[in-house]
Design goal:
The protein is α+β, with helices and mostly antiparallel strands. The protein has a single domain, classed as Histidine kinase-like ATPase, C-terminal domain (Heat Shock Protein 90, 2-Layer Sandwich). The protein contains five helices and five strands. The longest helix has 21 residues. It is globular, with a radius of gyration of 16 Å. The protein starts with a helix and ends in a 6-residue tail after the last strand.
Length: 162
């Protein structure tokens, strides 16, 4: 049986929940720009601003996927923990298995000789975002909801004073 979100958060050792926000996004004119600003503000006190950039990029990818594949995001949730955070995007996409949980990078699959001879124009324009999510987030997962699915990414700041 798949672990629950609560179990995954505990496994990632994020500590106690400090704050939690859920933002409805239906009808928001520019949800990506709004969400980027919201995540940056929520994480402004993190000691590692590189991790803030990672969280914003991952959230941006999750939101873009909801826009592209599921008629837009329904909501954005931020969980702030003692030693990390989670960002979750809820959409109305009803098939959580449509999200590949082991994404690959086309470039990472090439050997050195192939990299030298591969034209950037020959690479697909999309399909790399979840690979970035898997590389930047400490963990990420997809769960079904009553009206669709939620994709959550966790970011650990283990050892920090956050």
């Amino acid at each position: 049986m798949q672990p629950t979100a609560a179990e995954l958060i505990r496994i990632q050792a994020l500590g106690q929940l400090i704050d939690h926000h859920i933002f409805g996004l239906v009808g928001v004119a520019e949800p990506l720009a709004w969400a980027r600003e919201t995540v940056r503000i929520a994480l402004r006190d993190w000691p590692d601003q590189g991790k803030v950039d990672d969280a914003v990029l991952v959230m941006d990818e999750l939101m873009a996927n909801a826009i592209r594949h599921a008629d837009g995001p329904e909501s954005l949730a931020l969980g702030l923990y003692e030693k990390g955070a989670t960002v979750s995007v809820v959409d109305r996409g009803t098939d959580p298995t449509a999200v590949p949980t082991s994404p690959i990078s086309y470039l990472a699959a090439l050997d050195e000789d192939e990299l030298d001879t591969t034209s950037m124009d020959s690479l697909p324009e999309s399909g790399q975002g979840l690979y970035l999510v898997s590389q930047l987030a400490t963990a990420w997962w997809v769960e079904r909801t009553a009206v669709g699915k939620v994709v959550t990414a966790a970011f650990s700041l283990a050892g920090s004073d956050t």
